[in-house]
Give the backbone structure.
Amino acid sequence: MGQSIIVVDAFADRPFAGNPAAVCFLDQPAREEWMQLVAREMNLSETAFLNPEGGGFGLRWFTPTVEVELCGHATLASAHVLWESGRLAPAATAHFLTRSGALTAQRDGDRIVLDFPATRARPAEPAPGLLAALGVQARKTGKHGLQYLLELESESAVRDLQPDFERLAALPVRGVIVTSRSDDPAFDFVSRFFAPASGVREDPVTGSAHCCLGPYWGERLGKSQLVGHQVSARGGVVEVQLAGDRVRLAGRAITVLRGELAA
């Protein structure tokens, strides 16, 4: 028997929407080189690797080219797999040990709620060449670590954005969030996320970006509960609740594929 692997559409209310993540459940930690090869083979924005650890589960995330520090949609997918497979009781909380500290996930009806660290983008000048690579003018620019947040003037500007990915990948930028107010009253803001330097040109729905988007729009709009719409080609909805230095991100997940690695 080979190693089972499951593909889950996260932040999706129907199959083939949201952000697909591969989830590989291991009896013990695997070699980093092997995990990176599996992630490259799966060729999704992230592949998650789970193993029992310390009363919870160790969790690591890999793009096709690098390991990342935090990933929302693959964490939501991992929690979904734990409950669906019976490794966790339906009412149990999923506890994850990660490079970003302890994270949890809980079920709330048909939603999964993640407890993640909040990140706040501080006002900053854009990296040289960033706006040219994106082909935009920004109303506001912020930065957290090597990740930038750009507020554009309208939803249409966000939707119509066509980055020069080769130029963008050459910049000292881990990821770029572009965002604006939503034209649809059902949502507070829209966004897209680009990370070509990390092997992901455009991420369909990015939970970790909402750790930054939530505090940003919460302050702008004076709200502690918000709904974000990531307007990629697949699209997805992330519900955000602000809780001090934490954010709670809620969404749905659907299993679309169960397979087995033969190598």
